[in-house]
Amino acid sequence: MTLAETFWVLRRTYAETARQAGCEHTVTFDRRAAKSAGMRLLT
Predict the structure, then answer these.
(1) How many C-beta atoms surround the C-beta of residue 27 within 10 A?
(2) Degrees, nearest 5: CA angle 35-33-12
(3) Domain extent listing, the chain
(4) Rounded to an integer, what distance in angstroms lies between the CA atom of residue 21 and that of residue 5?
(5) Per-residue pLDDT for the chain (43 aa), expressed as one digit of tens each?
(6) Which of 5, 12, 15, 41 is deepest in the core (most CB within 10 A)?
(7) 27-28 and 40-41 beta bridge pairing
(8) Is the dihedral of CA 43, 35, 10, 26 positive or negative?
């Protein structure tokens, strides 16, 4: 697995863990993460 792939897996895992802990949303400034990792874009 490349470093970039590892990075995306960690982002998805973070978002999923936050949801399991009861967080309704996980926010990010990264537009691609907002689309592909299940996060919301913070503008």
Answers:
(1) 15
(2) 100
(3) 3-41
(4) 24
(5) 899 899 888 888 888 898 899 998 888 898 887 887 778 999 8
(6) 15
(7) parallel
(8) positive
